[in-house]
Fold this sequence. Notes:
By secondary structure, the protein is mainly beta. The chain has one helix spanning 2-18, and strands at residues 47-58, 65-77, 80-93, 96-111, 114-130, 153-168, 172-179, 185-187, 193-195, 199-206, 208-209, 215-225, 230-240, 244-251, 255-264, 268-277, 287-298, 307-308.
Amino acid sequence: MKKVVFSVLLIVFCVRSVFSQLDVQLSQYMFHNSSFNPAAVGEDEMIQVTGQYRLQWMGMPNAGKTLLFSINSPLKIGTTANGVGLKFLNDEVGLFSNQSIHLQYAYKKRMGVGVLSLGADVGFVSLGFRGDSTYLPESEFHDKADMQIPKTSVTGSSLDLNVGMFYSTPKYYAGISYTHLNNPKISWTDNIDFSIQGAMYLTGGYNWALPDTKYVLKPSTLIKTDFSSFQLDASARLEYDNKYWGGLSYRIQDAVVVLAGINISGGMSIGCSYDIPTSQIITVSTGSFEVVGIYSFEYVFGKKKNKFKSIRIL
C-alpha cells in the first residue's frame, strides 16, 4: 500500500510540475508531427497511416497507456495544394480516461525553397473519471463527502479546436501550434466542471548528410508550454542508407530516451523507444516504452499500380 500511495503522489507531482495539461507525452514526436500540429498533414506528398502506442512508467500501479492513430493525405484542388487528415486518441492514466477525434486540414503554399502550411483541426474531446473506484482512507485530512470528488463513473465531452503553422524543406522543418484553442470545458456533474488549458508547441528538425557516407544525422527538438510550465525534448538520430536509425533524446528533468528503428520495403517503417527516468520516478518505475508504425503510400486513380517510398522528413 505504501508503494501504491507513493506512486500516486509521484504521478500527481510530476504531471502538475512538469507539464500541467492533458496532452499526451510522446518520445517519438518527430515521426508524428501532425499529432500536435494540424499544419503538418500531407507534408510527405504521400498517404500516411501512423499508429503509436505508449506504456508510461511501467511497473507503477495505474500508470498511463496511450494509443494514437492518424491518417493524412495531400489533396490538390485545382492549382491549390492542401492536406487533410483524421486522428484518434485514447489515453488512460489512473482513474482518468481521455479520448478525442479530430478532422484536420492544411492549406499549403510554396515559399522559397520550401512549403508553408497553415492548418487547423476540429473535433471532440471526451474525459472520464471512474469515481466508483476511488479510495479515501480514514483520516482527518480526507472528507468522503467532498462534492468535488465524483462518487460514480462520469464522462463529459466538448468541442476542441487546434491551429498550427508548419514550414518544411528537403533539409529542415519548423512548426508552431496551439492546442485547445477554445479551452474546452467538460461538465461531469452539476457541481464539477473540468477546463482544459491550451498549450503551445514549438518544433524543428534538420537533415545533415555526412560527407562521403550513407549516414544522415537528424537532430530535432520539441518545446511544449502552457505558459505556467514548460517541457523540452532534444533529440538526435543517426540514419544509415535511408533504412536503419538509432539515437538518443533528453527530456529535461524527466528522462533519457533511447531510439531505434528501421524502414522496411514497401513504405513501412517501425520505430521504438525506451525512456530511462532521471527523476525520483525511477524508484517505482522501470521506465516507459513506446512503439510507432508508419505506412506511407501513393494511390493514383486510373492507374493499376501503387507507388511506395519511405518517409522523407521526420
